[in-house]
Amino acid sequence: MKNLFLLSVIAVFAMSNVNAQEVTFGAKAGLNMASFSGDETGGVKAKTSFHVGAVAEIAISDVFSVQPELLFSAQGAKEDGGDGEFKSNYINLPIMAKYYVAEGLSVEAGPQVGLLISAEDEDGDDFKDEMSGIDFGLNLGVGYKMESGLNFAARYNLGLSNIWDYDGIGDFSQQNAVFQISVGYFFN
Known about the structure:
Layout: H1 2-14, E1 23-38, E2 44-45, E3 47-59, E4 64-79, E5 85-102, E6 105-121, E7 134-145, E8 150-159, E9 174-187
Antiparallel strand pairs: 1-3, 1-9, 2-4, 3-4, 4-5, 5-6, 6-7, 7-8, 8-9
């Protein structure tokens, strides 16, 4: 996964020499429905939160582009049947390959790496030291971009790496699982 991410970053930088008319920049924000997948997740349910950040779309052809993003993403999970809540905040860097199947309509997929910036429970107890500082995932989604630059997307982030990292963890493994709905705008 680390090699795939590194190759994606190299590809984005290599393509940064394309014509300025083929690169558009923008911003996006939206709703997260975040939870955990993996071991012992029967007691958790989705936590509603948000994401916000900057995007760029690098056109490779009329139907294919690469979209790197830099996002703040509030994630975590809630206790099923209780008031417990776990909050984890990340700076995420997804690099999406976009294929336009029709005018404005795209299917998207790509790797994501996240940097954990904070983690706490509902009482404010800090859990950051018990979590892995880096999170790897795979994004799958669809998007629609209007000629005006306004765009909409729905995406699922499938966590690939264990979010927990502390002594005594053993074989216990949980991953982030985040469904996102976004609205954004590309500056033409």
